Amino acid sequence: MNAEQMWNKFVAENQVIETEYQSWAFGAAADELAELVLRGIKTGTASAYPLYEKENESLPKKGDYSVILNSKNEAVCIIKTTKVYIVPFREVRGDHAGKEGEGDGSLEYWRKVHVEFFSKCMAEAGKLFDENMPVVCEEFELVYKP
How far is it, in rounded angstroms, from Cα 143 to Cα 31? Predict the structure, then answer.
């Protein structure tokens, strides 16, 4: 099922009036992270703020719907954003790391994998990662799985 098909099914089954949604896959390990969402373990994500600026892309906001895709661009589930805040990388807290549900759920694990991931993404955009870089922290709830 593709994103549009899943969205249409969700709207029909839940009498949702909202017509806008995003569709995207988690950057590092799309299949593994989507599975964590389906299992109720992953309820948060983080992204590099400078990349939103570079792409002139709007930031996520509370109430946004997203169709989560796997590595084959197939729709896996739908989430709804419940909270968005921006902090420097060095100020991301352990409670957010736990909501991301990756590894052992610790802040130390989160920092290790996100330094690697953000460094790669920033380099691809011709920018440098540093620990003062603003990070968009997003929390969400799973609202639909087929």
Answer: 18
